[in-house]
Batch of 3 targets.
Target 1
Amino acid sequence: MRRIEPVLLAGCNQTDSGPKTVEEAQQEAAKLDRPVPGLYSQTMKITKLEMPDAPPEMVKQMQAAMGQSEPTDFCLTEEMAKEGFEQMFQEIENEGECTYDRFDVSGGKLDALLQCESKEQGKGTITMSGNVTSQGSDVTVEIATVNPGAPMGNSTIGMQMVSKRIGGCPAEKQSDG
């Protein structure tokens, strides 16, 4: 199972209305206050699931996961906090050609729209909205994909991710990262 990293997605005030590259989003994210190091609790819940082309057993597994949300705790070290939010956008960049149609955070409110396309994974539209602070986040993400050649085919999956700083890192977790 893949470790869930802190989802503290954010950006700066967008001053122009044109699309933004991933690099521009990284530059804006670098201007943000860094997250506070410490122990965080994160929950992720699937809120929407539309997979008309997927095999029935895959849909059944995903539906079983809907509404379930088991908290995962992680330690955000001082070193990780210094990296800020830029690292998240490097991962997005590696997934294919992506452009932000919208990337705005005003008063801690996130509003972003990302369009991606790759030969292997097809086209995807990712919308993100919610609240982000240096102590945590409550972000809703919706991913709509168009890829007739993939097992899931065309799909729309929505999820809510909430992370909250709950204290300092235990001594034994200080070196994790």
Target 2
Amino acid sequence: MNKTIGERIRKHREEKGYSQENLAEKLHISRSAYQRIENGETNTWVNHLSSLCEELGISADELLTTDENFVQVNNHNESSNDNGSGVIQNQTNNYNISEKLIEQYEERIKELKDQIEELKEENKLLRSKK
């Protein structure tokens, strides 16, 4: 079954035992603003993607990717407007999501490179003690 981002956020929040108020407080937003995120009334979760993932203990991929391997930003992946602005909004949201994912992956790559360098130095020290 394909779930919206809000539904997936709700599922993970409940699994962690957080109330909407608890998670809203951790994100520094009002409970009503948070409630709109879960109800799919807004896509402002994009602004809180990193914090949401951190608080819920999940990766951005886990939150954003559906069983069909695409990002769905709202219930219909479109706007109720007939003027095409929904398409532009979804493209903008997907762009923002992509940028945040790239930023997170680049940060993780840097961390891994630093760990590799530390391990190389440690290995070098161990070899020199032999």
Target 3
Amino acid sequence: MARLDSLISKYRETIATPWSAGVAAPQRVIFLIYSPLDELRLRAQFEEFKIATKEAGHGWEHQDLTNAFSSWMMEHEYRESYFKRPSMLMRDANGDLAEFSISLITKLRTRIDETCDENTVFALSGIGSLFGFMHVSRLVEGIRDRVHGRLVIFFPGDLKDNHYRFLDARDGWDYMALAIKAEDY
């Protein structure tokens, strides 16, 4: 539990620091990095992140992506065909499910436009459920320009030498966001 307490404490300190106006989109992204083993404990403490954000004088908008793929699939007119032949789902050059990725990014951009301003934290959790369907890097790049406050990604994985590794399984990518890492992880 000390790891998550450390993460919350570091987040509280970071989010309370005055925000500079006019920073580039990649500089408005914050990754909260924690062990995938701590996922359930972290979910039980989301309210702490919201409280820290509100105490710092910022708005909070949280989107849980845990059911994003299943919801998309259930709404899809060809779902029965996809269930019978999953190979019909088209992947793009990056290996993402193209139609799903576009749909999710579009929905999130709309939600950001409707609920966020330059003083709002837009937080995404449940991104572990995207594994195998969409790369986190594509998601971040698809929405970061819409977020004028801060984009917070609850990231189950690791960071070494500015190289993110998603779920300790997929080779990562370099990204120049602010990273807050749970202590002893």
